[in-house]
Amino acid sequence: MTDAKEAPNAPDYSGLKAVFINCTLKPSPSFSHTECLMDVVQKIMEDAGVTVQSYRSVDHAIAPGVYPDMTKEGFDEDAWPDISKTVMASDILVIGTPIWLGEVSSECRKIIERLYAHSGETNDKGQYIFYGKAGGCIVTGNEDGVKHCAMSTLYSLSHIGYTIPPQADAGWIGEIGPGPSYGDKQDDGSRVGFDSEFTQRNATFLAWNLMHMANLLNQAGGIPEYGNSRDAWDDGVRYNHPNPEYR
Amino acid sequence: MTDAKEAPNAPDYSGLKAVFINCTLKPSPSFSHTECLMDVVQKIMEDAGVTVQSYRSVDHAIAPGVYPDMTKEGFDEDAWPDISKTVMASDILVIGTPIWLGEVSSECRKIIERLYAHSGETNDKGQYIFYGKAGGCIVTGNEDGVKHCAMSTLYSLSHIGYTIPPQADAGWIGEIGPGPSYGDKQDDGSRVGFDSEFTQRNATFLAWNLMHMANLLNQAGGIPEYGNSRDAWDDGVRYNHPNPEYR
Amino acid sequence: MTDAKEAPNAPDYSGLKAVFINCTLKPSPSFSHTECLMDVVQKIMEDAGVTVQSYRSVDHAIAPGVYPDMTKEGFDEDAWPDISKTVMASDILVIGTPIWLGEVSSECRKIIERLYAHSGETNDKGQYIFYGKAGGCIVTGNEDGVKHCAMSTLYSLSHIGYTIPPQADAGWIGEIGPGPSYGDKQDDGSRVGFDSEFTQRNATFLAWNLMHMANLLNQAGGIPEYGNSRDAWDDGVRYNHPNPEYR
Amino acid sequence: MTDAKEAPNAPDYSGLKAVFINCTLKPSPSFSHTECLMDVVQKIMEDAGVTVQSYRSVDHAIAPGVYPDMTKEGFDEDAWPDISKTVMASDILVIGTPIWLGEVSSECRKIIERLYAHSGETNDKGQYIFYGKAGGCIVTGNEDGVKHCAMSTLYSLSHIGYTIPPQADAGWIGEIGPGPSYGDKQDDGSRVGFDSEFTQRNATFLAWNLMHMANLLNQAGGIPEYGNSRDAWDDGVRYNHPNPEYR
Predict the structure, then answer these.
(1) Mean of the pLDDT values across residues C146-164?
(2) What is the pTM of this model?
(3) What's the average model confidence in pLDDT over B74-99?
(4) Which of B138, B140, B151, B176 should we substitute to test contact with C (largest number of C Cβ atoms within 10 Å)?
């Protein structure tokens, strides 16, 4: 790795903003294996000029629920309205989650539920509010479940309006059975998973594909609104949907 | 619907090609509920100028396996090499599947296994062969499982290189329990699901988002190759992946 | 239904205990659709003599985490140690969850993470602590996902030691798209889903199969420990596992 | 392992019958990693006296579909009616599947679709035909997905009537990324995964829990029919389901 060749002409993506939400169950300052891998992707983005803001969800008093602001639904506290402002202002969202029993963490589901709470909002084209943004995820565990957690998380993002570029997930898991997790220090001083070329490659491709897609969407002014404006649809526009009476 | 307003300036996507693969278990000429909904999406695309080719997988002798041509692995027959040529030549792939026990059909998994068989191939930028294409899916059943089947199918497409635009799935299911499926004729002459505005809207948004994304990628010459060329990675290029020795 | 025939010889299961955990996101006293269906199963069990205790998880300050008592891990409060005592004392566990974006609720994952926290504990035979108990689930939503949520929840229960009887899930969902949920009052005074014979049947079968299985396991003194004692395995017992050296 | 302690009083289960269906994509005589692990479980059962019959599905001309005999639906050939007779005559069913893209194989889905085809059949108590049997699964891959594949497969079995004992799955996967699979010969002559105590333990517990559960069900004459007879339900029996009119 020390003599890694570099490709010429790295793009400058200094106009882009990204938000990373780490859904570990462990409050700071505990070490989070998921964060350890998220840091790799964040660093690649920052080196390309992207402004990145990151959150560890469990450190914030985010209420459960499916409304944008749960203090209006009877909860005393809710950190989500503030965090969601950053999400709305960002071109890229990266969700990180540990794996428990083969599934994403409860924190991850809570964040997705809160994102989903905004599914009734539309942008100035009448599209769902997350249109024009790119989403991806990072998953770590000690043995099993990266793909399953990724498919669930990426589908949720796609469903609410994010574009999912190719290979939009990266992760690390070890051989089946109990064992160390990503970033754990080993007796020889090395750290688990750091030498996995597979994880390195996926983290790199994830970072760049998210940036390319966000930039592509930005350059295009978002996704064209013909055919997908919720507001226009509700107003009666049908975009050539075949008339069921004549089918 | 008869007086649906139309939006002005429908894009002309006559340069695009799409392939639809219907993974019903029922050979032709049996009625396929899934095909009935796929036809809606296909019609919207054709009206926008897209050239569409469609297959019903069970009508073709597609061998099981994870190689591009299973006749080289001992099978007598394999229709996949021909079908895969159409997939490779198309900008858009739409997979349709019925739901059985809450999961995609065995035919759907077989098609995905065969697509995955090409994951070692790269384009002239060194990217995975499906980079630069847009993918989506259509799911029908009588009662449950659209989202689950969609998350599995879309993840597979994303994993092998497809870009997944927002809301890249459409489907129809009825209330829990046994009941009719999409397109079944009812006593009053109407057909099940045709009046579901939700399904109409999702089918429409799916069609247009796939076309917009395919066009966007075509205009951009595909996804930029900085950071995601498998060939360059294998040649030692690391695209600013942080050196693990210094972390 | 008013003239429903009754079968003779309903078993008396007055020795059994069951615990129901409702993982709705809505705190009391909000109406929970999931609870509305859980009540049916609870009533059938109570009529058969079973002692049932029920919780709505969001009403209790249950900390996130994967340890039995999170107050020992830095959290100020944790209601789980008390609730887990009821779980340990019960023969049957029924988890109820709403569906959000096709998945179980974050509360449901939190409860499963906390159950999993006990996976290192063993009973007096050396088996995992949940051996000898029967588990099931109830899932409600407005349109899609009963089977997906059930497979995730039942697998988690099976993995930690519960026995899953046949047809261990019941649920209600409506036709695809927005719509009312189980138990919502309709204009004509009826309540949504109450007339679904499919849901009635599944709720009934679920209730009785959980009771039969719990009783069967109780009568047998639990699952025989030959071949599944974690303590014995750790002590070197191999129960005829073929010696890999000779394979 | 050579000096593994043995527990006294191994049960004699010579009255039980089991059927193993291996859903690898590779026809015989190719080496199947999944079969290699299934053999461990089969050997433990045979040593306990169980009569085991095994199939590799891809070796048989099993038609796709959801009917018991697809030759009646237009297919020229269908090996399922014969295989299903063995399944019906067996107390235990073990399904083995490789993992492709984080999911079960297309062969596995095909087998489950064919099992599901019998869901309309009932036993002499009026219960679904698979009541009174125990089911489990074995999953192998090179890197990810045992739990996801297990939850899907076990749910399908539970749904059609099988009882799922605790820890009803066993599997092997390696660290994330490309790599050898279970049973592959390594340079030092050892075979991949054979030394995984985790896989050994799960395979052993799976084998014994399936036998214990099948025996328990046999001794009890199956699951009591009060509350779960499909035939009685269809005849109007409601088993104390609360009358919705009075709720």
Answers:
(1) 98
(2) 0.97
(3) 97
(4) B176
> Token digits for A5?
């060749």
- Taken in order C43, C45, C47, C52, the sign of the CA dihedral is negative
Assign A2 a pLDDT band (cuts: 50, 70, 90): very low
Query: What CA–CA distance (Å, rounded) separates A118 from A129?
Result: 7
Residue in B41, B131, B164 to test binding to A, most A beta-carbons within 10 Å: B164
Residue pair A109/A141 in contact by the 8 Å Cβ criterion: no
Q: Which residues in chain C touch residue D223, judged by CB atoms under 8 angstroms apart?
A: 165-166, 209, 212-213, 216
Interface test with C, best of B99, B104, B144, B151 (most C CBs within 10 A): B144
List alpha helices for D73-186, DSSP H.
Answer: 80-89, 106-116, 146-160
What is the reported pLDDT for B4? 63
Contact C237 D10 (CB under 8 A): no
Q: How many CB atoms lie within 10 A of CB D218?
A: 16
Mean pLDDT for D113-141 is 97
Question: What Cα–Cα distance (Å) separates residue A24 from each residue in A30, A149, C152, C174, D130?
Answer: 10, 13, 20, 34, 41
Among B47, B154, B217, beta carbon nearest to A155: B154
D120 touches chain B (CB under 8 A): no
Instruction: Inspect the interface and report whether the beta carbons of D106 and B106 lie closer than 8 Å.
Output: yes
Mean pLDDT of A44-48: 97
Nearest CB to A102 within list D151, D196, D198: D151
Question: Taking residues D177-199, what's their average pLDDT?
Answer: 96
Rounded to the nearest integer, the mean pLDDT of chain B is 95
SS3 B94: strand
- How far, CA to CA in Å, does C98 sit from each of A225, B196, D80? 33, 23, 38
- Hey, CA dihedral for D230, D234, D238, D241, is it positive or negative? positive
Q: How far apart are CA C231 and CA C234, in angstroms?
A: 5
Residue A111 host element (H or E): helix A106-116
- State the average pLDDT over residues C87-100: 98
Residues 186-215 of C with CB under 8 A from B: 196-199
- Partner A contacted by D98 (CB < 8 A): no
On chain B, the residues whose CB falls within 8 A of the CB of A1 are 238, 241, 243-245
The residues in B 58-87 lying below 8 A from D, measured between CB atoms, are 58, 64-66, 74
Residues 25-44, chain D: which have Cβ within 8 Å of B?
25-27
| pLDDT tens per residue, range B94-130 | 999 999 999 999 999 999 999 999 999 999 999 999 9
Q: Mind listing the pLDDT tens digit for each residue in A186-227?
A: 999 999 999 999 999 999 999 999 999 999 999 999 999 999
3-state secondary structure of D133: coil
What's the whole-number mean pLDDT along residues A112-138? 97
Residues of A in contact with C119 (CB under 8 A): none
Strand partners for D165:
none
Nearest CA to B240 out of D193, D92, A201, D134 is that of A201
> Best residue in A21, A106, A128 to probe C by mutation, most C CBs within 10 Å?
A106
**Chain C residue numbers touching A25 (CB-CB < 8 A):** 64-66, 113
Question: Which residue does chain B place closest to A9, by CA atoms?
Answer: B226
Which two structure tokens, joined as six digits, stand for A241?
Answer: 């949907």
- pLDDT band of C245, cuts 50, 70, 90: low
Token digits for D20?
A: 């193993």
From the list C102, C106, C112, the residue facing A101 with the nearest CB is C112
Q: Quick one: DSSP state of residue B191?
A: B
Give me the domains of chain C, ranges plus CATH numbers: 17-246 (3.40.50.360)
Angle between helices C80-89 and C106-116 (to 10 degrees): 70
Measured CA to CA in angstroms, residue C74 lies from A28, A34, C69, C194, D195 at distances of 11, 20, 10, 45, 38
